[in-house]
Amino acid sequence: MSTVDHVEALKAKHASLEHAISEETARPHPNDDALCSLKKKKLQIKDEITRLTTKPH
Fold first, then answer.
1. Cα(8)–Cα(5) distance, integer angstroms
2. What is the mean pLDDT of each successive set of 10 residues along the chain, which is 57 residues long?
3. C-alpha torsion 53→17→39→21, nearest 10
4. pTM as predicted
5. Which residues contact residue 46 at a Cβ distance below 8 angstroms, ignoring those fewer than 6 apart?
6. Degrees (nearest 5) of the Cα angle 25, 31, 32?
């Protein structure tokens, strides 16, 4: 898998997590533990995307 493909896959996972966070937040009683976990995973993916896209060539 090339770096570009890997970044695109990470962006798709990031968007999926964003959607899951939105759904959880829209619930009448959001699960704070689930939200925290989703947000942590989303941030880790964002950091990985940043690391891959700013790496000197």
1. 5
2. 93 98 96 98 97 81
3. 140
4. 0.87
5. 14
6. 90
